[in-house]
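Lab channel / #folding
Pinned by the channel admin:
"Please post every new chain as: sequence first, then the structure tokens as a reply. Keep commentary short and put observations after the output so the thread stays searchable."

First post following the new format, from NK:
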Amino acid sequence: MIIPAEALSPDTLNALIEEFVTRDGTDYGDHETDLASKVSQVKALLARKEVVIIFNEATEQAGIVHKDQINQL
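Reply from TO:
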């Protein structure tokens, strides 16, 4: 199920984004990017609908995925 970012409280949205950007294997290139910048980048991607928030009812877990990955889930 896709959850609109606007449906989440600001604190919940930030926690979800922070978990996403600090996940093992997340790479932002050759230079280090601070957490606030990473969160801002993901918020911009959400606003442009390039990534979406999904909720898996079976596992009761939420995550952020690229829009092209939705059909693979």
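NK: The first strand starts at residue 2 and ends at 3.
TO: also worth noting, Strands lie at 2-3, 51-56, 61-66.
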